[in-house]
From TrEMBL:
Domain Ada DNA repair metal-binding positions: 16-63
Pfam families reported for this sequence: Ada_Zn_binding
SUPFAM superfamilies: Ada DNA repair protein, N-terminal domain (N-Ada 10) (SSF57884)
Protein name listed in UniProt: Ada DNA repair metal-binding domain-containing protein
GO molecular function, one term: DNA binding
Natural source organism: Paraburkholderia caffeinitolerans
Keywords assigned: Activator
UniProt-listed GO biological process terms: DNA repair; regulation of DNA-templated transcription
């Protein structure tokens, strides 16, 4: 069965963004954020939080488009 790429829809994506901004370790592994620059973030990333309109959230790292690179910590 092929992998279907699905983003997390609002309002759940809004909750993901709040967890990302708060660097909430409780959500680490629960979602991954793909940034329009080609990087990805986990909820515990220490880098500056990207703007909301530049992020798409995914449940699994395997769903991230184009094998993005991790953000620098």
């Amino acid at each position: 069965m092929p992998l279907v790429l699905t983003t997390i829809d609002a309002p759940e994506s809004d909750a993901c963004y709040l967890a990302l901004k708060a660097r909430d370790a409780r959500f680490d592994g629960a979602f991954f954020a793909a940034v329009s620059t080609g990087m990805y973030c986990r909820p515990v990333c220490r880098v500056k939080t990207p703007r909301r309109e530049n992020i798409r959230f995914y449940r699994h790292a395997a769903e991230l488009p184009c094998a993005p690179r991790p953000a620098r910590s």
